Every structure is written in structure tokens, then in C-alpha cells.
């Protein structure tokens, strides 16, 4: 049955109104073949020198600076801003209020498929008193990171260094990563995790909420930091620490299981931990002697994870490092 004239008029009127609305309230640009359009709301300020990829969506009241490069399929929610010499990879999402980059010398590079949460600030000037105005400073972030609301990540404090974030990290709300930090991949930082300047975090580390880490500390792979901890020395690989000041409480057994370590590897690590940090009267000597005993052990010396554990401790005991978190009943004598 043919459509009635009234229905046809309603359809035409609806199409006309939608067309007028799009022309009035948005700017849509198409590629030459008419595919993958970009949307820019007319209340946003996009500098003509900015390089904009395909399939971009820029919502109301956003700012895109003159030196900005936006990759394909990026989405800027209302009130988000990209400033300074900043490059965003493909498929990045900025939630409302997020600020990426700063109008200071240097550069901020964000990889692909990152989510930057509401009112997060990423790639701004550091809070280091040694920073000199006019110096270049840098931040580099990898791919597939989720950076939640109110997170702050600062650029480096000097031209010869840079703040670095790896891939596949979950950085929960109100975390802070200060200047010159080096963060690896596959880490989980719970709310209000605070890293001071020059902190190094390896891979697969997990922090509970409201913890602070002193500047220049190292946080090892597959470790766990308990909630409310104050970490003032290095956290060796595979361990669990907690407290103020944080102390070694054993191995991060659950993290090791989830990380795919075999039963044999975990048993070997437990044996090595007991030899190093829970010595008996039959095993006199200092920490270096106990580390050497583990390295000479007939079975433990054949397990790569154990040797990596020992090496992590040795590195932290060097003169230019801060030492490791103490064990309650352990002394260096």
C-alpha cells in the first residue's frame, strides 16, 4: 500500500529539521569518498594549524591548540582540552574536563587507544622546584592505558629526562605520577596512589589505595603494596609490603599465581625468601652471604625466577639506591 501524503510530509519535514540542526549545531567534514566523517561542535576552538585525523569527534567547549596532532577516531567529550606540542594516537578518548599537554617547551606523546578520565591532567608542568622556566620537558605514554578521573601525570623536570608510562596500565582515580617517573606495563594502581619524582615501577605491580612512594624508590615486578602504606625504600620483585613505614610481609603469592608462575617456581621463591629474610642460627652471616647461598644452592640456582629475585635485591642494595623495605625480624648484621 502506498504511503499516505500526510506521512510523506511528516517524513520530509523531519529530514529537513534534522539537516538544519546538523548545520546549525555542528561542523561535519567528510573524506573524498564520503566515509568516516569528523564532527566538530561550533562552540569548540580548534586552531587551524592543528592536524586532525579522520573520524574525529570534538564536543562542545573543547580546545585544540596550534601544535596538536590528533590521530584517527579520537573523541573529545565536552570541556576537554589538548594543548601545547601534544600528539594523541588513534582512538583516544578524553572525558569531560580532561586536560592533555601544556603550553610550555617540550612535548607530550600519548599512544593509541588510551582513555583519559574526567578532569584528569596529563602532560603538564612538573611541581619540582628545580625546574627552570623555558626548559623543555617531556612525557611519553604508551597504548591501551585507562587513566581515571582526577589523575595527574607530570612531564619531566629537565630536558635530559622524561616521564614514561608503558602499556595496559589501569591508573585509578586521584592517582599522581610525578616528574621523571618510569612506569612499566600491566600495572594496577588503586585510588590515591601517589608516586614522588623519579620513582621506577616495573611490570605487573599492584598497589592498594592511599599509598605513597618516596622519590627515587623502585617498585619491582609482580609486587603488591598494601593499602595506606608509606614506602620509603625499594620493594623487591615478587614481594608484598605494607605498613608505615612499609615492611616486607612475604611473597605476593596471589599475584604470582595470577601472573602464570608455576607451582615449582612459587615453591622455589618461597624457599629462597625464607633463606634470605628468615635466617636461622644455623645460617649466620649478613644479607650478602645469604644471597650468595641462594645463588649456590643446588636446586634454587636452576630457577630463573629465583635468580631474578636475588638480582632485584642486589640492585637495591647498591650505594646509589635506597635499600629495601625491612623485614621485622631482620637486621643487616
From TrEMBL:
<feature type="domain" description="UDP N-acetylglucosamine O-acyltransferase C-terminal">
    <location>
        <begin position="234"/>
        <end position="325"/>
    </location>
</feature>
<keyword id="KW-0012">Acyltransferase</keyword>
<keyword id="KW-0808">Transferase</keyword>
<dbReference type="InterPro" id="IPR029098">
    <property type="entry name" value="Acetyltransf_C"/>
</dbReference>
<dbReference type="GO" id="GO:0016020">
    <property type="term" value="C:membrane"/>
</dbReference>
<keyword id="KW-0441">Lipid A biosynthesis</keyword>
<dbReference type="Pfam" id="PF13720">
    <property type="entry name" value="Acetyltransf_11"/>
</dbReference>
<dbReference type="GO" id="GO:0009245">
    <property type="term" value="P:lipid A biosynthetic process"/>
</dbReference>
<protein>
    <recommendedName>
        <fullName>UDP N-acetylglucosamine O-acyltransferase C-terminal domain-containing protein</fullName>
    </recommendedName>
</protein>
<dbReference type="InterPro" id="IPR010137">
    <property type="entry name" value="Lipid_A_LpxA"/>
</dbReference>
<keyword id="KW-0443">Lipid metabolism</keyword>
<dbReference type="InterPro" id="IPR037157">
    <property type="entry name" value="Acetyltransf_C_sf"/>
</dbReference>
<dbReference type="InterPro" id="IPR001451">
    <property type="entry name" value="Hexapep"/>
</dbReference>
<dbReference type="InterPro" id="IPR011004">
    <property type="entry name" value="Trimer_LpxA-like_sf"/>
</dbReference>
<dbReference type="Pfam" id="PF00132">
    <property type="entry name" value="Hexapep"/>
</dbReference>
<keyword id="KW-0444">Lipid biosynthesis</keyword>
<dbReference type="GO" id="GO:0008780">
    <property type="term" value="F:acyl-[acyl-carrier-protein]-UDP-N-acetylglucosamine O-acyltransferase activity"/>
</dbReference>
Amino acid at each position: 500500500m502506498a504511503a499516505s501524503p500526510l506521512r510523506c510530509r511528516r517524513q520530509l519535514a523531519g529530514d529537513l529539521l534534522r539537516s538544519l540542526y546538523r548545520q546549525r549545531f555542528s561542523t561535519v567534514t567528510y573524506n573524498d569518498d564520503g566515509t568516516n566523517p569528523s564532527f566538530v561542535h561550533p562552540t569548540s576552538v580548534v586552531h587551524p594549524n592543528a592536524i586532525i585525523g579522520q573520524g574525529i569527534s570534538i564536543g562542545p567547549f573543547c580546545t585544540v591548540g596550534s601544535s596538536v596532532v590528533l590521530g584517527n577516531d579520537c573523541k573529545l567529550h565536552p570541556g576537554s582540552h589538548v594543548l601545547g606540542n601534544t600528539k594523541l594516537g588513534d582512538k583516544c578518548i578524553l572525558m569531560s574536563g580532561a586536560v592533555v599537554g601544556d603550553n610550555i617547551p617540550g612535548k607530550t606523546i600519548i599512544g593509541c587507544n588510551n582513555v583519559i578520565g574526567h578532569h584528569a591532567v596529563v602532560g603538564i608542568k612538573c611541581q619540582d622546584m628545580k625546574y627552570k622556566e623555558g626548559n623543555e620537558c617531556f612525557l611519553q605514554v604508551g597504548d591501551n592505558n585507562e587513566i581515571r578521573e582526577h589523575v595527574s601525570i607530570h612531564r619531566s623536570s629537565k630536558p635530559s629526562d622524561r616521564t614514561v608510562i608503558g602499556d595496559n596500565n589501569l591508573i585509578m582515580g586521584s592517582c599522581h605520577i610525578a616528574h621523571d617517573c618510569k612506569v612499566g606495563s600491566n600495572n594496577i594502581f588503586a585510588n590515591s596512589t601517589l608516586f614522588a619524582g623519579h620513582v621506577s615501577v616495573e611490570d605487573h605491580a599492584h598497589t592498594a589505595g592511599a599509598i605513597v612512594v618516596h622519590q627515587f624508590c623502585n617498585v619491582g615486578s609482580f609486587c603488591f603494596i598494601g593499602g595506606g602504606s608509606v614506602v620509603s625504600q625499594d620493594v623487591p620483585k615478587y614481594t608484598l609490603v605494607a605498613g608505615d613505614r612499609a615492611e616486607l610481609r612475604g611473597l605476593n603469592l596471589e599475584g604470582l599465581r595470577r601472573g602464570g608462575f608455576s607451582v615449582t617456581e612459587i615453591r622455589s621463591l618461597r624457599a629462597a625468601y625464607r633463606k634470605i629474610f628468615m635466617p636461622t642460627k644455623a645460617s649466620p652471616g649478613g644479607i650478602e652471604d645469604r644471597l650468595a647461598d641462594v645463588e649456590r644452592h643446588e636446586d634454587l640456582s636452576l630457577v630463573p625466577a629465583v635468580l631474578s629475585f636475588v638480582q632485584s635485591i642486589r640492585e637495591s642494595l647498591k650505594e646509589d639506591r635506597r635499600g629495601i623495605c625491612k623485614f621485622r625480624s631482620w637486621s643487616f648484621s
